[in-house]
User: Fold these one by one.
Assistant:
Number 1:
Amino acid sequence: MNLSRLVTREISHRKTNFFLTLAGVALAVTCVLATLAAMRSYDLNSDRIIAKMEADTQQEMKQLEDDIRKTMKGLGFNIYIFPKDQDMSEVYDQGYASKTMPEEYATTLANSKIVTVNHLLPSLTQKLEWPEKKRTVILIGVRGEVPLAHRDPKSPLIDPVKKGDLVLGYELHRSLDLKEGDELVFKGKKFKLGKAYPERGTKDDITMWMNLSECQELLGKQGQINAIQALECNCATLDRLGEIRAELMQILPDTQITETGSTALARAESRTKAKATAEKQIAAAKSHRTQSSAEREKFAGILLPIVLLFAMVWIAMLSLMNVRERVMEIGVLRAIGVGSKIILSAFLSRAVLAGLLGAIAGVTAFVITYPLLKERFFQGVAMGDVLAGSDWLVALVAAPVLAAVSAWLPSLMAAQKDPADVLRHD
Amino acid sequence: MYYAMTEARHPAVKARGLHKRFVTAEGEVHAVNDVSFEVQAGDFVALHGPSGCGKSTLLLMTGALLSPGEGIIEIAGKNPYELNAEGRATFRAAHVGFVFQQFHLIPYLDVLDNVLVGDLVSQSVDDVSMRERAHDLLEKFNIGHRLHHVPSKLSIGEQQRVALARALLRAPELVLADEPTGNLDPENSEIILQHLADFADEGGAVIMVTHDDRARAAAKSSMHLDAGRLLESDQGESDKEEGDS
Ligand SMILES: Nc1ncnc2c1ncn2[C@@H]1O[C@H](COP(=O)(O)OP(=O)(O)OP(=O)(O)O)[C@@H](O)[C@H]1O
Ligand SMILES: [Mg+2]
């Protein structure tokens, strides 16, 4: 005669009690799983929404940054640094400065810690006759950007012109019928047409670009430039120019600056603000998610213990009923020499079995009903995403353990029943 | 020779100066009052007396189920009350069989399992030999054809025979029966009394509480208890001498 036989026979004899115990466990397990699933599905869903928002924003931001970059590129260099004694009305009139300053200014600026400007481009500009062709051109000597010492190198906005090359605006190469690669002579010096620009409809169309040092030599202005072009950083304050000026004056007191294209920049800035707004929205969504998740957790933190408590009381009550029903049986078994440990195990293993079968029933019920309730209660999230294998395992282990704990006291009462007390009422 | 034999073979039960008092709300009940007796192997003793005189109390004390307030009791030469509760359970399993008026069969076990349920105590014992013994007993008690019926399907007389088989499974030295025929018709009483007598004849000791004169007659000797005191005991020395010599 073994214990499992005794237990299984008893269960099949008192089906109702066992079934009620099992059903209690099953209900509790389903409740716990459903609560967890609901909570996690909410979190997952908001995570997904936030992730989508972030992806969308990132997409928009990329677009935005591209737009800004294009705007900037279109603007070209929007800060001009001229010698201090340059008369600005002359600049507005003829389009360039007649006064010059040392080329090293650009290097000085590049080696300083200036933060308000970017992309330094020294140049030497002069309107003059192209003697060989008898035409007026605007000659600009450029040497390429001077890299800023303290910044990561950026892709240059303008490529330097190679020595021996010329770059011509549209009107020039069209009227002279020149193609890229053609040989030409300027002021007695031979050049190759490196690049022929398409039509821009500005004075660029009658501009000739040359390597700075060759230009300086041709104009007899060695080591001199008459402007440094720069691109302002995307500074946040309204008084950008004031800021730049303040910083520049510290480094190059012998200069002055002007700005072009403010409206386009303002537009770019408003887009930057849009980015900030989107980021704020994401942050709000995130904090909402955290907050409501915490609220749900709080709710579950109250609900789950109540469910567990009810289940445990239910199991304990049914166990107690079972013990009371079997008082005589216990007395007789004890009298004929069955040890109290065996009695205890008989009642506990009954509870454990009810717990295990109840957990299996609860899990099965949950798995079967999940697809039907998925849309309504679980945000349409797939079951595998809210409950992992370990959750099932925990349910299958925890339920029998809790059932045993709940049945512990009644079982102990049974095991410690005094057989004499029971039998004297015979 | 005789002396040596009694030394070697302890009396089945030896009780000296037993007292049992119960304290209740209504006051103290002196249920067993200075009782001494001896029961030898082969004895079949009827314990009788008016209701409430302490018969059941005395039987429980004799069965290692209820410790006496005073006095000493030895079963097969050992005082079970020197053991702890678990030790006493093991002791009972080995030495004492119980039969009750209400049979107290386990309702969800079939006849065979009801007999074998006493074997729950020792998994180490060869189950097969126990099964064989259960079969033999049930065969002997003429219920070998009902092995797999649950108690509720049996007649009253059959149920008590199953209970008796359960009591005898581990071949105890002592069988304690509290009104075993109290619920039985004369015919079935006869059968049970005969089996108890057979057990005593085979060297077991039986103490049977009974109100029934016929049952008393079936026993070889009797003890009369009144208000917790043993009034007369016709465990005739002659009887004992006869049995022993
Ligand atoms: N656990 C107990 N607590 C209080 N009183 C008890 C207890 N057990 C027995 N008694 C009392 O002790 C006395 C003897 O009881 P007992 O059951 O031994 O009598 P009995 O001779 O078996 O009676 P009956 O023939 O009716 O079965 C009774 O008065 C009973 O009420
Ligand atoms: Mg009684």
Number 2:
Amino acid sequence: MIEKDLLVIGAGPAGSTAAKFAAKKGLDTLVIEKRQEIGTPIRCAEGVGKNVEEFVEIENDFISKDVEGAKIFSPNQELFEMAERAAGDEVGYILERKKFDQYLVEKAIEEGAEVKLRTRAKDIERDGDSIITKAIRNGKKIKIKSKIVIAADGVESRIGRLTGIIDSLSLKDIESCAQYLVTGIEDIDLDYTHFYLGKEIAPGGYAWIFPKGPESANVGLGVQPTRASKKPKEYLDEFMTQLGLEDGKIIEEMFGGVPVAEPLETAIDDNIMLVGDAARQADPITGGGIINGIKAGKIAAEAAKRSKENENYSKDTLKYYEEKRKQEIALKNKRNYQLKELFQSLGDEKYNSIVSSLKGTDFEKISVASLVSELIEENPEIAEEIKEII
Amino acid sequence: MIEVDNELCGHCGACVGVCPVNALDLIGYQIELVGDCIDCGNCIQTCPVGAIEGEK
Ligand SMILES: Cc1cc2nc3c(=O)[nH]c(=O)nc-3n(C[C@H](O)[C@H](O)[C@H](O)COP(=O)(O)OP(=O)(O)OC[C@H]3O[C@@H](n4cnc5c(N)ncnc54)[C@H](O)[C@@H]3O)c2cc1C
């Protein structure tokens, strides 16, 4: 039996950040990851806001592109643009996610965490004041005894569910996604990210073009399964045609699910904390989960350190994580969840009128907050709902 | 009971996350049935490529 202070399950951004800070604070830390290679296959459009710099030292190695702003297209193909400053946290860098994830794991190792690949957590049970995780490593059964488990096992989150902290994702709270990495693109402005709205394109979600290089981009979309009449891959093939990319040179195909759910009431139990997608921390509007996962990992590491100091691993001592993640993540996500529900209920005409009412605005000067008040002014029918949410 | 076409599958694990009885797991590049399927159809509806078929 392996014995550790902390076991982190899953080496995505949330897990490796938790491991890095926990190891730095002196916890004997092990990370297990079922994949054979960190970061692949990627399941991500790779966009992050520039505020990523608050958490990660930016190295050119894992930045594909520094974007200038966002172009948003309504169902009737009207466009409005947001400069980077106005779009704030939502626009910034397009990462090389595989390198980024590997970099974060390297940082965890530098701080003293141990990492085992090809090791899949299968079962978990409490044992006195510890917790025992049964895993399969290279085909063989192993057991890991730890004081704390941080489950960072992503959208699948079998571990979170085995502990009873969460239920499965409801179909209205997941975006089912397909994406191609396309190269040889000529007629699209690849200094901007592009977002496309509309129920023909991506019902209950949106389609995107995230530039990766001078001629290449992630072209993808997410749909809400209950609103879709086709599979995301079929919507994507149609979107490619609409963009004139039907003969596009696809060098990678990627699929995935993102939680777009309400924040959890409780993300902990005795000896265990959930972080990242496992705790449904992706932003319900954008589906962006990298930065929130990193934030959560950092908070969870501090909570782990505090409980080690107190030699108490109960739910009560892990409350630090609950309180901090509520302030730093759940508050905004809760509002965005309600906005998501509202936006999803609007028809294409409404999107058209919203985009067209925003068109004349000077986006160099405005913030997302003033954007919302503009929205309310121009679209009184939904004003009450939006006001209630904010 | 569901059937997964593991060659059509994109190995993304979205189906695992929506299974209400935790009966699916992504093991290596295979989606495997590791529990008792209740034929709810969630995985079928969620799969981005249509790799899962079954009752519902
Ligand atoms: C198509 C798509 C596009 C997206 N685009 C963006 C974007 O542009 N920007 C953004 O910020 N976010 C985006 N996201 C969301 C983002 O990818 C996730 O929010 C982020 O990866 C969550 O990080 P995480 O560490 O919680 O989980 P993950 O990165 O999913 O990592 C979880 C890890 O746990 C491992 N694991 C799972 N189960 C076990 C187990 N039992 N034992 C051991 N290991 C296990 C997995 O193999 C995986 O490596 C996108 C998601 C999708 C699907």
